[in-house]
TrEMBL record:
HAMAP family: Xylose_isom_A. Mg(2+) 1 binds at residues 230, 266, 294, 337. It is found in: Cytoplasm. Its cofactor is Mg(2+). InterPro entries: Xyl_isomerase-like_sf, Xylose_isom_bac, Xylose_isomerase. The keyword RNA-binding does not apply. GO terms for molecular function: magnesium ion binding; xylose isomerase activity. The active site is at 99, 102. Belongs to the xylose isomerase family. NCBIfam families: PRK05474.1, xylose_isom_A. This is Xylose isomerase. The keyword Transcription regulation does not apply. Gene3D superfamilies: Divalent-metal-dependent TIM barrel enzymes (3.20.20.150).
Length: 437
């Protein structure tokens, strides 16, 4: 059975095409800076937003039209696998991501949940073997169920902690079964509401304790994917322990996890933290911890995680520049953690939205590659800091030959004659726009 019988495999047709089911910019085999687009971009589709999101919001009921619902939860789950791989094949996407609860019903007990996961991942493995499509990453949803009201790794209840550990163990077993390249931790409720009854250090110690169990178990089963922590501020917890890239790196370094954990960064999470996406990528890159990204965008007029498909070429260009400067993103990838808008409720919108996101990242890659080839940013930065290597005092400071006394003498000798140089930043931004056409 085909769930999208009216749509053939999406092909690259160029920017002049008027075919909505065609790529205008994403040409998988086009070579950019020595690698094909598909090698640079490593696109993945998110199971949750694509297969389980129903279009409901706090003010409206479900609206999405979906044809994969069966007579039971397990029948629906199996239909979703078939429909999902049809989407992946028609888009030409080679990777996918999922939470455990996305793919299989939780049932009435932990035993039933684990059995359901085994049955559905057997079916997923068959589809992977048939198509050659790979698992970019999987993760355990340890935030939706009421048991995780006070966190999972940070919970105040050791029985909840044990349940979380069981979910993570199963997630790692599934990762080995499906040869997952990464494994993600998003601490959706790893935070606190008020300090009045919270022991922050105790909770973070326990999160780190769980992560170290993960490392040991990965070694025991002989499967160690790249482990990733995904930062996010504010929601659902008021004070998230993984607020942003810098906060999460402080956690990683405090607990000696740098050799085992990197970051999975999301654009909408960056804006919620008060940062640009490229800022978060730069922080991770400078720590050697840029592991993978979730591709989406937020609405700056709305104050929550709207998870829109990325269509802003400037933002994506700056993000892709960071990825190119990182030397690429493998074994991570670019996962479309994005959902169609409530007004885009037809089945075909799932394909159209991903086409839009993939075309936007293709344009961002091309523009970022040209910026890199032209040395656009290198020239700006070199010019801005030129006096450090272009003056005797600058070189002397950088070679650690100065101290407070010698620099004080220099300041007195040279008075207040410092002449600053304008950044001409408006002109710079105008030039940057030229690369986006």
């Amino acid at each position: 059975m085909s769930y999208f019988p009216q749509v053939e495999k999406i092909q690259f047709e160029g920017k002049e095409t008027r075919n909505p089911f065609a790529f205008r910019h994403y040409n998988a085999e086009e070579v950019v800076l020595g690698k094909t687009m598909k090698e640079h971009l490593r696109f993945a589709v998110a199971y949750w937003h694509t297969m389980t999101q129903d279009g409901s919001d706090p003010f409206g009921m479900a609206i999405n039209e979906r044809s994969w619902f069966g007579k039971s939860e397990m029948e629906t789950a199996k239909n979703r696998v078939e429909a999902f791989f049809e989407i992946l094949e028609k888009l030409g996407v080679e990777y996918f991501c999922f939470h455990d609860v996305d793919i299989a019903p939780a049932g009435e007990s932990i035993e039933e949940f684990m059995a359901n996961l085994d049955e559905i991942t057997d079916l997923i493995k068959v589809k992977m073997d048939e198509t050659g499509i790979k698992l970019l990453w999987n993760t355990a949803n340890m935030f939706s169920h009421p048991r995780f009201n006070n966190g999972a790794g940070s919970t105040n209840d050791p029985e909840v902690y044990a349940y979380a550990a069981a979910q993570v163990k199963k997630g790692l077993d599934i990762s080995k079964k499906l040869n997952g390249q990464n494994y993600v931790f998003w601490g959706g409720r790893e935070g606190y509401e008020t300090l009045l009854n919270t022991d922050m250090k105790f909770e973070q110690d326990n999160i780190a304790r769980l992560f170290k169990m993960v490392i040991r178990y990965a070694g025991k089963i002989g499967h160690k994917p790249q482990f990733l922590i995904e930062p996010k501020p504010k929601e659902p917890s008021k004070h998230q322990y993984d607020f942003d890239a810098a906060t999460t790196m402080a956690f990683i370094k405090t607990y000696g996890l740098e050799g085992d954990f990197k970051l999975n960064l999301e654009a909408n999470h960056a804006t919620l933290a008060g940062h640009t996406f490229e800022h978060e990528l730069r922080v991770a890159r400078e720590y050697g911890a840029l592991g993978s990204i979730d591709a989406n965008q937020g609405d700056m007029l709305l104050g929550w995680d709207t998870d829109e498909f990325p269509t802003n070429v400037l933002d994506v260009t700056l993000a892709m520049y960071e990825i190119l400067e990182n030397g690429g993103i493998a074994p991570g990838g670019i996962n479309f953690d994005a959902k169609v808008r409530r007004s885009s409720f037809e089945m075909e919108d799932l394909l159209l939205a991903h086409i839009a996101g993939m075309d936007t990242f293709a344009r961002g890659l091309q523009a970022a590659a040209k910026l890199k080839e032209d040395g656009f940013f290198n020239e700006l930065i070199s010019d801005r800091y030129a006096k450090w290597n272009g003056t005797e005092i600058g070189k002397s400071i950088l070679s650690d030959q100065e101290d407070l006394e010698s620099l004080t003498r220099y300041a007195y000798a040279h008075g207040d004659g410092v002449k600053l140089k304008s950044s001409h930043i408006e002109h710079v931004k105008s030039r940057l726009n030229d690369y986006l056409v």
